[in-house]
Design goal:
The structure is a single chain. The chain is α+β, with helices and mostly antiparallel strands. Helix content is 31%, strand content 34%. It has helices at 2-11, 42-53, 91-106, and strands spanning 21-31, 62-70, 73-85, 112-120. A hairpin with a 2-residue loop joins strand 2 (62-70) and strand 3 (73-85).
Length: 122
Amino acid sequence: MLWITSAAAATTPTPATTTWESDKRTELFFGGTRRDDSAITPAEFEMFLDKDVTPAFPEGLTWLPVHGQWMGGKQDSYLLILLYPDNNRRADRDIEEIRSDYKSQFGQESVLRADSAERVSF
């Protein structure tokens, strides 16, 4: 058993042996309820992703159903996580267009955006 543990530890990548990239991370928080209190279904959100998000970020993305609060009201929501190279000059414009499109299509007042710098390895 000790040998297996040692072998596993030897093959685990370390910061010195892993190739790291500097990427930006943008998290977008989309409300899941329209003004009339009807839900934006996961199927509707996925259609929005396919039409409006994936063409701008074809390399990939992650989305999760989440629960949130906005202006004192609780609602189901969606979190979109995008990782993209620092030098992607179109990303900011594309992200702002995604936010605008969602607000327009689903009658939202706002789409929260949070940006950070990340070190990533694939």
